[in-house]
Design brief:
heterodimer; A: alpha+beta; 2 domains; six-stranded mixed barrel; 11 helices; 48% helix; 17% strand; B: alpha+beta; 13-stranded mixed beta sheet; 14 helices; 13 strands; 49% helix
């Protein structure tokens, strides 16, 4: 089939052609970027924390009338209370292991700082400091969280210190994540070497390296240090405490229900509310709710957008078919087969959608550049543009099929009938 | 004439129901999504205290020691206790208060412990932010100086603890200490909670307010951002190198605001002379709306959604333009007859626009329903602002204005083309 007569025919309805092409171009631009945003959000939600997330929950509680953590005596009493709680939780049937901890990944409550390979580094020496998040826990932290040790050793009970929440004692040993260790010691020989915490002058020896452990912050502000965690063998003593608990398989719900009564039995002077005992699944769901919501919204917008564009194509093509009723009859009378008429409209649509898609690629890239400038977006990969192009072309073909088939059913006798 | 056009428009729309439904639906979808996101934007970027927002200023400064100062860093939001107390002592503003959020446990009449959110601040807080009192009154500046054991509680907490009765003079048990209640708040909630955006940007006011000096004296726990330049045994100590206090000042006239700006610069210069630091030590005060803008209270996701929705509306309009064009030109014959019978081009143009406007209004009504549905969905989102998203009268009017304007805009080109129909050609081709 020759394109020349088709283009000549299209020039007769410039306005309609331009409108459809423009609509397809805009749809392509928005759909490409929306699908890209969906893809990015899904990637974020699916990144592993490094934890074994099943059978894990977190309990947070606050003591009422607890001693002050600002005096050595108060700290000692708070630590005794913490140990009582730990023992009670450990003795619960169904509990595999328990560790006190200040936060867990995705909880969005974090203690951040920076570590350096050199002592007494100032905050302003940007290059030497690597941002990190501290997890304060004890020797059970690896089995409780399900972290995988890739070098060195775990903490032992003898390594574990305790301190008041606001104190800042020296920290002789730490375990780092592999990401952080590799940043500090790129040769991969971090175990046994020293790091200096928060510009401190006293060294902390790296005794072990774990494969992966995400920081508690789930916002985009943590993107450049999401895997830089430091584990410190210290129980923090304050008027509140957190316990990470790993249960035996399948007993998560049962154990979670017994936590509040058990802790109240140890010491009734405390507050545990509905939000205090949370499974890791809930923590994860809460952290990523906004991302999931955005992905769903984008998905819905894409679908509605494609339907509106499809409806527009159907409407306008139907109109053209009606307008060219007689012309089609003439072609049929001159020997064109039904399939020729069908193909004519299909090809015409491909031509319009194709030129729309070409403009749309430009618009998609432009929109992406604007989004990169004003929002946290990455460069749109070519793949997404291709998916978008194929989507609008297929959409055009599907939308044009019904009116085109109606056109192909115009009987040749129309040509001879007076209007 | 308008009535006649309206009648013609309705007849024409009825003749081709599917096409009409398609156009109405397209406009409704565009309007519905745009209005949903615009309403969220409208609520989030609203002024929480319109009568005073230009007179209230958040004071912030960078007084970090030289070895912590990095050129180009943002000015920290909070002050050290040393600077906050110095500014309070000078008292150059009409009202001023340093403050921090905190949490504590109070014991209810039934003996149940309740965890409550608190605000430690000064007596000026209440007149500065126009806080209404149901019973009693705020504490006086003398109470700040005397570290008086006094508290103001929220209406909600008064309901929970005292059954809503006047509780002035009663006591509140806090960790072995007792605070005398001097006032009970009326309904007061700032959304966004501009005075402290670090502990939830939307939500109810705190339940207990007490003097900052008292809270420091009792070593009550504070919450919120805390940054220190080096180790401090007690980060809340008077000279601790830690920034954690929020500082607000009320300056009633532009002249006073300018004078205050000068005063802050002088204060920084004094610190430099005293050898505290040698960097420029930026100090600035932002009024409420500047402050909300600087803190990005409208989440970037919401902005993105709004732009997407407007783009979506644009596509729906293009769609409507195409369909109207098809519809009007299909009626070339009819238009030709009307033109031949003496209708002017203007009359044809107006007739077409009335038809477009009818489609727009119908789209607007349906769009409003869709927007209401969209807002229900937004309210079910797990965001702290969800509960405050409502459509007000101005947004309602905007919905119809937007629907009408966009459909008329969409009708312009098709109406123009329809009016150009040459009567002779149209009649002959029929």
């Amino acid at each position: 089939m020759k394109l020349h007569p088709m283009i000549a025919a299209l020039r007769k309805h410039k306005a309609g052609v331009v409108l459809i092409a423009l609509q397809i171009a805009l749809t392509l631009a928005i759909v490409c970027n929306a699908i890209f945003i969906i893809g990015q959000r899904i990637d974020r939600v699916n990144r592993p924390t490094g934890l074994d997330e099943g059978n894990l929950f977190l309990a947070t509680q606050q003591w009422v009338g607890a001693p002050s953590a600002d005096t050595p005596d108060g700290v000692a009493r708070l630590d005794a209370m913490l140990k009582e709680d730990l023992a009670a939780l450990r003795n619960l049937p169904g509990v595999a292991s328990v560790a006190p901890i200040n936060s867990v990944p995705l909880l969005n409550s974090s203690w951040n700082g920076s570590v350096s390979t050199k002592p007494d580094r100032k905050f302003s020496d940007k290059g030497d400091n690597v941002r990190t998040t501290y997890y304060f826990s004890d020797e059970n932290v690896l089995p409780v969280l399900g972290l995988r040790l890739v070098a060195g050793r775990n903490f032992t009970a003898a390594d574990v210190q305790h301190q008041g929440f606001r104190d800042n004692p020296p920290r002789p040993i730490v375990i780092l994540t592999k990401d952080l260790a590799d940043k500090l010691y790129p040769k991969g020989d971090a175990v046994g070497k020293a790091v200096y915490i928060d510009g401190s002058g006293s060294p902390s020896t790296i005794i072990g390296v774990v494969a992966r452990l995400q920081v508690p912050g789930s916002g985009t502000w943590t993107n450049n240090f999401a895997w830089n965690s430091t584990l410190v063998p210290t129980r923090l003593n304050a008027n509140f405490s957190r316990y990470a608990v790993r249960t035996k398989p399948g007993q998560l719900d049962a154990v979670m229900r017994t936590v509040a009564p058990t802790l109240y039995k140890v010491n009734p002077l405390r507050v545990l509310d509905d939000d205090s005992v949370k499974s890791f699944g809930d923590i994860r769901a809460k952290a990523y709710r906004a991302d999931v919501g955005m992905a769903i919204l984008m998905g819905v917008i894409c679908l509605v957008l494609l339907s509106v564009t499809a409806a527009g194509i159907v409407g306008l093509t139907s109109f053209w078919v009606g307008q060219r009723h007689r012309q089609i009859g003439v072609r049929r009378a001159l020997g064109a087969r039904k399939v020729d008429i069908l193909h004519y409209f299909q090809l015409e649509n491909l031509l319009i959608a194709g030129s729309g898609a070409l403009i749309g690629i430009g618009m998609a890239v432009g929109l992406n550049l604007a989004l990169m400038r004003y929002y946290e977006m990455d460069r749109l990969p070519v793949l997404y543009t291709l998916i978008g192009v194929i989507a609008v072309l297929v959409l055009g073909q599907c939308a044009v099929f019904v009116p085109a088939r109606r056109a192909s059913n115009v009987p040749p006798v129309t040509a001879t009938r007076a209007v | 004439m308008f009535g006649y056009y309206l009648d013609l428009a309705l007849r024409s729309l009825k003749r081709n129901r599917v096409l009409t439904a398609l156009m109405v639906l397209a406009i409704a979808l565009g309007i519905g999504t745009s209005m949903t996101t615009l309403t969220v934007m409208h609520v989030l970027s609203g002024d929480p205290i319109p009568q005073k927002s230009a007179q209230l200023f958040r004071v912030r400064m960078d007084v970090s020691p030289d070895d912590h100062f990095r050129q180009g860093d943002k000015v920290p939001d909070n002050l050290t206790r040393r600077d906050a107390e110095a500014l309070l002592r000078d008292g150059k503003a009409d009202h001023q208060a340093a403050m921090s959020a905190g949490a504590m446990v109070v014991v209810s009449a039934q003996g149940e412990p309740l965890r409550v959110a608190t605000r430690y601040t000064g007596a000026d807080f209440f007149p500065m932010f126009d806080v209404p009192m149901r019973y009693g009154q705020a504490w006086r500046p003398e109470d700040d100086a005397a570290r008086a054991r006094v508290a103001v509680i929220s209406g909600d907490l008064n309901e929970q603890l005292f059954g809503g009765k006047d509780s002035v003079g009663k006591t509140l048990q806090v960790g072995g200490q007792s605070l005398r209640i001097v006032g009970v708040l009326g309904d007061w909630a700032m959304n966004p909670r501009f005075y402290d955006l670090s502990n939830g940007q939307f939500g109810n006011s705190e339940q207990v307010f007490l003097p900052l000096s008292t809270a420091l004296d009792l070593k009550l726990s504070t919450s919120g951002s805390l940054t220190c330049w080096g180790s401090a045994p007690d980060s809340r100590a008077p000279e601790a190198p830690c920034i954690w206090l929020q500082y607000w000042a009320e300056l009633d006239t532009p002249a006073k605001a300018a004078a205050y700006r000068q005063y802050l610069q002088n204060y920084i210069a004094l610190q430099q002379q005293g050898g505290r630091f040698s960097h420029p030590g930026l100090a600035e005060e932002l009024d409420v709306m500047q402050w909300l803008d600087a803190k990005g209270v409208v989440p970037s996701d919401v902005r993105l959604q709004t732009w997407l929705a407007l783009g979506f509306l644009g596509i729906c309009l293009l769609n409507t333009v195409g369909l109207l064009l098809a519809k009007f030109l299909r009626r070339s014959g009819e238009i030709g007859v009307r033109r031949a019978l003496g209708a002017s081009r203007r009359a044809i143009f107006l007739q077409c626009l009335v038809e477009a406007g009818v489609v727009g209004l119908a789209g607007g009504v349906l769009g409003l329903a869709l927007a209401a549905l969209g807002l229900v969905l937004v309210r079910h989102q797990p965001t702290d602002y969800a509960a405050y998203i409502h459509m007000d009268l101005s947004m309602l009017l905007l919905t119809f204005a937007l629907a009408l304007a966009s459909s008329l805009l969409a009708g312009l080109l098709p109406a123009w083309r329809a009016m150009q129909v040459a009567p002779a050609v149209a009649l002959k081709s029929n």
